[in-house]
Write a structure and sequence with these properties.
With about 270 residues, the chain is mostly helical. It has one domain. It is built from nine helices and two strands; from the N terminus they run αααββαααααα. α1 runs antiparallel to α4, α3 runs antiparallel to α6 and α8 packs antiparallel against α9.
Amino acid sequence: MPGEPLAPGLQRTCPASSRYRLLPPALVLLAGSLAGGIQPAGLLAGSLFVAWVFGVRPRLADGPWRAGVLLASLALAAHLLPGFTPLWLAEPRQLSPDAPPYGVRLSWDKLLLGATLLGWWWTETAARPHSPAWPVRALALALATLLGVPALALATGLVAWQPKWPAELPVWLAVNLGVTVLAEELLFRGLLQDALVRRLGTARGIILGAALFGLAHAPVSPLFALLAGAAGLGYGGVMQLSGRLGSAVLLHGAVNLLHFLLLSYPLRLN
């Protein structure tokens, strides 16, 4: 794939961006504590994560620092750290006749992950030059991903055609795009792919990043992991071609929205 091995996104919008990098995670920790969703153990773990991301960065080599961020991020995303209690925003119910009940909940640990990496990415890309962009190619790949991933899911039987317009749509959209998608793209495209592309080259960096993205979804099912890996190729390619992480975030959110509105959700029971 053409292009320099650099994929910055969310370019500088304020010369003093680094002054506000701690604001997103600080607001999450404060709101979660006040709401009772973050207990003392979670506050300690979250504060240590924020300290590692921002405080250790200037004092440690890039590889060990990213490895530490990756391990801690996966623990937060998988809800493995104590002290975090999710906030249910919509009680579980069956959205599709062939799928298990599904409810919408706000996971404070994953929200903290996204907020922290957002502050880091904002600072990380502020001083970089704009990368070359191929908007037409990025748009073509985005369209292929948007149509191809749901089609592949249908073809494999992972989901079925189940169009719907659930009442939970607004709250689901806010949580999915603002928490799940943002955190995953910052982690796998911002933290991982950005480094892999610089070290391995564009094609190998995108492929390896997508493979790791798929592997992270393996606990759901091997088939779902393969599908996530295929989607990751599209998200990573669009980020590289557009030069913006935000493009991958929007594409990922659009794919998830099509899944929610048109297909079995979350997945078929069998």
